[in-house]
Amino acid sequence: MIFTPSAMMLKLLYTRGSLRNTPEGVAFSIKNRLDTVRITRIEYVELDDVRIGTEQIALDLGNGDVRPASVFNAERAGFTLPVGQSATFHLAAKPLPEGLHTIRVRFAAEPFGELTVEVEDAIAARPESRTRIPRSETDDYSEAAIRARQQFAEEFTGEQFEHLKHYSFDAHTLQGNCEHFTGVAQIPVGLAGPLHVNGEHAQGQFLIPLATTEGTLVASYNRGIQLLNLCGGVKCTVIGDAMQRAPVFVFDDARGARDFGRWVEEAIDQIRPEAESTSRIAKLQYIDTYLAGKFAYLRFNYSTGDAAGQNMVGRATFAACSWILEHYPGAPIRHFYLESNFATDKKASQVNVMRTRGKRVVAEAVIKRDILQQRMRVKPEQLAYHGQVSNVGAFLSGANNNGAHSANGITALFIATGQDVANVSESSAGVLYSEITPEGDLYISITIPSLIVATHGGGTGLATQNEYLRLLGCTGRGTVNKLAEIVAGVVLAGELSLGAAISSSDWVSSHEQYGRNR
Ligand SMILES: CC(C)(COP(=O)([O-])OP(=O)([O-])OC[C@H]1O[C@@H](n2cnc3c(N)ncnc32)[C@H](O)[C@@H]1OP(=O)([O-])[O-])[C@@H](O)C(=O)NCCC(=O)NCCSC(=O)C[C@@](C)(O)CC(=O)[O-]
Ligand SMILES: NC(=O)C1=CN([C@@H]2O[C@H](COP(=O)(O)OP(=O)(O)OC[C@H]3O[C@@H](n4cnc5c(N)ncnc54)[C@H](OP(=O)(O)O)[C@@H]3O)[C@@H](O)[C@H]2O)C=CC1
């Protein structure tokens, strides 16, 4: 199924600030910011309601491919404009005076049919020459482009750089991951484990790669892992899975927003195929509606296969909203934004904790009394009591986690395995619980309600990152829940180790031994 971009969305094609006078007339640029299209015909351009015919229009598609629109139409061959590619319209027209102008472009595109882009842009005095990082239009990942940026950085700062230039992979593999690539930051990786995981997806022993510069961290996780192993391993379970994008629709009043929310609920079976038409993998599960004032916030929830899914759900929700904007029969929609800060991506939030974002995963273990005392120098009662006192601290401080440091293990694993590290913001939320069993042992669990992990897409295919995923046995289809379970197990190991160090008062001394660079 194909979505038709609304007039509001078509404006995104126009490159603001691109309107300019040229020696031959007037020029402006478009850039495909929507979806790959095939442009089959240019009908006309209007500048301030003055129509410019196809014989006065030339299209510059880059790389010296310039075609008069009349020839282009006669050839009927069309051209494909992939996402991210620009085209410049050159018009044989009188130069425009400084100030605001209206531009209307009418063209035909497959698979949409006839479309009109209507925008306003200004002819402005050209900005002064400015410092510009070198960029190659033809191949920005070539050796020459990278060297030019390294040299630029050295000249700009007056410093010489040695290590950031050394890497072992083809820089072209970074396309889709990093613009203006200039070099690498080498993060040391320490191994912990092997961790014994009793998951539904991860079963057996796993070596844990921890990318960190915090001394003591690997030692601490390693210690916690040994403790878990001595007690039979860690039981891990994925109990929820959803990735969100949360658009907002603005109405004239609260009733408009309320009625829209009801309509969305009824129209879900029509909205779903629109969203899912954009991906082989993304599946729209449900839409939550939250109302406030004249605003209707929709929280679209998807399953996204082995990918974290932020790009997938953005694209899918964009298509769904495009359909909604065209088909909603009720009160006029005054504004629409694809994201309303309700997703909530890369931010700690209560809605993530309550409604799940990414994977909701639990790690549990029963730690034997004598093993805890021998290995960690604390009794179960001491750890459980310390947990209660910490709960009050977490409550008072408003933290998103009543445990000690799940962000440490999560960040170190994220860096090693190519996850988007900014997602530690929501992935760091945690609910730690412990109790003494009738046998006098310690039952302990951690729930991570918004763990954003992937084994496909994002940075997971990059050279070292993919090797660390292979170390964990987490490459290939259907491996993302396995990774989620391993991460949860590692987090629980860290809670036990640091919790014990704080309870037994050897936390500071351990950092003095392992973690200082005075
Ligand atoms: C992608 C652009 C910049 C295109 O922007 P554009 O205006 O379509 O592109 P342009 O070709 O006209 O270039 C404009 C300028 O962009 C820069 N630029 C352009 N291309 C390059 C490049 N290859 N390498 C380096 N710089 C580049 C460069 O400064 C350039 O100026 P110039 O130097 O040419 O005079 C724009 O569309 C954009 O900024 N989009 C927003 C993307 C973004 O911020 N994503 C953040 C990730 S989303 C997220 O993580 C969190 C979120 C959103 O989920 C949180 C939430 O839920 O709220
Ligand atoms: N756009 C945004 O707002 C944000 C983007 N990000 C970035 O988004 C990236 C993550 O986006 P994400 O959508 O996960 O990844 P990608 O954008 O890398 O897309 C992954 C694609 O891989 C394809 N695919 C093939 N096999 C599988 C499989 N087994 N499971 C899942 N997908 C598969 C799917 O294609 P198809 O859909 O065509 O079937 C899917 O869309 C990260 O790099 C992150 O930094 C982060 C935050 C916000």
Automatic annotation (TrEMBL):
Q: Which UniProt keywords apply?
A: NADP, Oxidoreductase
Q: Pfam families annotated for this entry?
A: HMG-CoA_red, HMG-CoA_red_N
Share an example GO biological-process annotation for this protein. Answer: coenzyme A metabolic process
Q: Which InterPro entries match?
A: HMG-CoA (IPR057868), HMG_CoA_Rdtase (IPR002202), HMG_CoA_Rdtase_cat_sf (IPR023074), HMG_CoA_Rdtase_eu_arc (IPR004554), HMG_CoA_Rdtase_NAD(P)-bd_sf (IPR009023), HMG_CoA_Rdtase_sub-bd_dom_sf (IPR009029)
Q: What EC number(s) does the entry state? A: 1.1.1.34
Please state what the protein is called: hydroxymethylglutaryl-CoA reductase (NADPH)
SUPFAM superfamilies, sorted: NAD-binding domain of HMG-CoA reductase, Substrate-binding domain of HMG-CoA reductase
- Family as reported in the entry's similarity comment: Belongs to the HMG-CoA reductase family.
Source species of the chain: Hymenobacter luteus
Q: Name one GO molecular function term.
A: hydroxymethylglutaryl-CoA reductase (NADPH) activity
Quote the PANTHER family the UniProt record gives. 3-HYDROXY-3-METHYLGLUTARYL-COENZYME A REDUCTASE (PTHR10572:SF24)
Q: Where is the Hydroxymethylglutaryl-CoA reductase-like domain?
A: 9-123
Q: Which domain of life is it from?
A: Bacteria
